[in-house]
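Justification of resources, computational component.

The compute hours requested in this renewal are based largely on the per-chain cost of generating structure records like the one below. Each record pairs the submitted sequence with a full structure-token output. That output is archived, and it is also reused by downstream analysis tasks.
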Amino acid sequence: MEPMSSSSVARTLSPVLSVLPTRALVDERFRVVVANLPPWFPVTLHSLHQSEDKDYWEAYAHYVSNDRGAVTVSDDASVGGTYTGKEAMGLLWSMRPVPGSRKDQRLRKVDVCTPIVVTISVYRGHVAEGFQEQTPMASVVTERWYMAPGVQRIDIRERGVKGTLFLPPGLGPFPGMLDLWGGGGGLAEYRSSLLASHGFVSMALEYLSTEQQEVDFNYFEKAFSIVQEHPQVMKDRVGMFGLSFGTSVSLTIAASSKLVSPRCCVCISGTHVYPLNKPLLEIYANMNKEADKKRLDDQNCIIWRDTILPIPSDPEEKIDVRRLKCPLLLVNGDDDQNLATVESAEDIAKMMREAGNEHLLTTLTYPNAGHLIEPPYTPHFRASNFIVHGTREKVVMLWGGQTKPHADAQEDSWGKILAFLRQHLYPSPVTVLKAKM
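The structure output for this chain reads:
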């Protein structure tokens, strides 16, 4: 009798695919294993997600089973696909729109009360296209959550402030956070809900939305006070978390407010060049006056980083970070094409050094990472559609970054951000128990 070929053996076996945990927070790693394969057998692992906009996103990687007929994604190297090498979470962070999709999309979760559903499948051979036309050997559906069980979501419409408050499970009291996104405006809840899943009361603040005609410095002070005054919040342990323009807001409040005092600040991909000394619409109007400094790349994506260069030497044109009295964590990517964040961080350090408060500053700069440094395993977007506030102009904004280094930056920075917050917001060393899914 002739020996069976590997393809014949594959047809007689039933590969076993496991993804554990199948239900987890978005910043948790999973373990993907394929067993019961022939030895040295080529397979493709594929991930598929349908976004809330009904667009499909996918990633895939090529593997060869070991001598025991198994593939373990965290231990074995991908030899091709949307990522290569040993990458435990590559099936998530290397996701991209399937061929034929709308261009320049960005994947963001809107309804945090529902999970990100991802189907992991294993296919025979090394496949690079046409996944929907083929039948996988095995599939597993996984759920990725921003909001852990027991986290409460509360709409805030108070004192003219709009936002969403997230409360961790339990009675508290807990440290608090005011969470600020950037110049795209509107309300993004996913980071705040994830912070609550890690033990922080967090309010995602809405500003620069189409419904709000104007907000100013006082709006952010009131928002901070709403978090601070909540009965489940430690009143003297409230911080601020800003990305992009949210950094300018956080630094201005921390340096200038006479009403509120953040215990610490985390600022991602931002600058001190935009002090909040005027209503936001006026600030944006002044920003748009620097349009002659904007550039286009060879794909007609807008490069905005030069608009704040050179960094002003006059302290009156910048947020006076010399007056900061709370710990500050700056997180930047050195390939940020939207803002000159590395140059800003260097000037912030210089100003604080001259004032004798540089000991409060921690700076993380990641090589080949871009502007949109998000929670771990979020797909990387080098460029995406963007509506310029004020002019309502629709453009494709170049954010920068290379996929693998950017993914590494997101995972590393998130762990350090949580450690920073625990160090400065909890009253004593504490073990924060992550809610089980």
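The longest helix spans residues 403-425. The helical segments are 6-12, 90-93, 190-197, 217-228, 245-256, 280-288, 341-355, 403-425.
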